[in-house]
Amino acid sequence: MIQKKKINQKDKRGFILDIFVGKPKDHCTLVTFKRNSIRGNHFHKKSTQYSFILEGKLTMITSRVDKNGKFIGKKIKKIVKKNDLITHKPFTSHAFKAKTKSRMLAFADGLRGGKNYEKDTFRLKNKLI
User: Among 11, 8, 32, which residue's Cα sits nearest to residue 100?
Assistant: First the structure.
C-alpha cells in the first residue's frame, strides 16, 4: 500500500510531516530546518523521543528537568549531524538550532503524533536556545 503524506505544519522554519502514527512505532515525523532556525525547547513526561539526523548539522542542547520544566541538570551542548541517532528520555528537555539546512526524523514511544501531538509535549518557559 502506498500513502501520500501531507504536511502537518509549516512556518518560516520549515515544515513537519508525520510519517506514521500508531504503527509500526507510536509515531514518526519528518522535521525540516532552514539555517539558523530553532526547534524543540520542550520535554516529554511519558514519551521517549528518538531523533535521527538525515542531513545537515545542528547544535543540540539538552538538560534534565523536573515535572514543571525547571532545569535540574547541567545543560549539555553537542553538534549533531547526518546519521546521528539521539535518544531523549522522559524529563530530558531538548532543542536544536540548525547550523545548515537540515532534515531529521523524530520517532516516539508514547503519545506524540497526529491529534496527540501536544498531549505529552511540555514547552519550556526558560528556553535552552
Answer: 32
